[in-house]
Design a protein that fits this description.
The protein has about 260 residues and is of the alpha/beta class. It is about 50% helix and about 10% strand. The chain has 10 helices and 7 strands.
Length: about 260
């Protein structure tokens, strides 16, 4: 298996992407900080770099610059894929203009990840995606709930959309169950950080990560509530008006509902 480097701080996203890369024939080494990932890529050769844009100690652009700063760095010329939960054309253009060879919006399915890597000319010799029974046709479908694609009436969405979650993980119930356990484990801490000061940079980082995790796990209603709060905060920056309060109340309610009806 050829080595792939992954920098992703959200536990659910990191677990899914690591598993997806292995199913696609890659040997994945995952890191939760940009610093650790850059140090590894400078010291050792990786055939592809997958860097999340929002990392706890910086952004993917600065760490890609560190890796490519000197030709002597082991992975200085490795293709780089930016990962982001923001489906924003300007951000995607900025990432490409700063050295990334491709950009992928989270959540994405195993099949979609494979297609992106194939588009970069990356086909690990040990991977046989067409015949691997672990990657089903379900992986060709929609991968989840991206910004701008959720229904305005979040109350009408299911708490857990098994079909969307399974489509993301290649129809593998065991992977989906593990991702949901990780998301639910981290949810109380994320909730506390978000509600402490919804306008803070830290809260927005947690919202960003939670939205990606919801997409991978098929947590449809919570994903919509997160998206609604992010939109309200973006439009009414610094405000504590009724729109912000309503979005916060909706998020709190969706978190309680998601925790109360955790899948078996």
């Amino acid at each position: 298996m050829k080595p792939a480097l992954l920098a992703e701080d959200d536990p659910a996203s990191r677990a899914f992407l690591s598993e997806a890369l292995q199913l696609l024939g890659w040997q994945c080494e995952a890191f939760e900080t940009g610093t650790a990932a850059a140090q590894a890529a400078i010291a050792r050769r990786f055939e592809v770099l997958l860097l999340d844009f929002n990392l706890p100690d910086g952004d993917g652009i600065q760490y890609l610059r560190m890796i490519r700063n000197l030709d002597s760095h082991a992975s200085s010329d490795s293709p780089a894929l930016a990962l982001t939960a923001d489906d924003d054309a300007l951000l995607h253009a900025r990432l490409r203009n700063n050295g990334f060879d491709a950009v992928a919006t989270k959540p994405l399915s195993i099949e979609q990840l494979g297609q992106v890597l194939t588009g970069l000319g990356l086909n690990p010799a040990s991977a046989d995606r067409q015949d691997d029974s672990r990657i089903s046709e379900a992986g060709h479908g929609d991968s989840g709930y991206r910004a701008g694609e959720v229904a305005a009436a979040w109350e009408d969405l299911p708490l857990w959309d098994d079909a969307a979650g399974l489509a993301t993980v290649g129809n593998n119930p065991a992977i989906l169950s593990s991702l949901r356990e990780l998301m639910l484990r981290d949810l109380p801490g994320q909730r506390d950080q978000i509600l402490a000061d919804p306008h803070s940079h830290e809260a927005r980082q947690h919202l960003h990560r939670l939205r990606a995790a919801c997409g991978f796990c098929g947590a449809a209603r919570l994903a919509a509530a997160v998206n609604a709060l992010e939109s309200a905060l973006a439009q009414l920056s610094g405000s504590d008006g009724p729109e912000i309060r309503a979005a916060i109340a909706a998020l709190e309610l969706c978190i309680r509902q998601t925790q109360a009806q955790a899948p078996d």
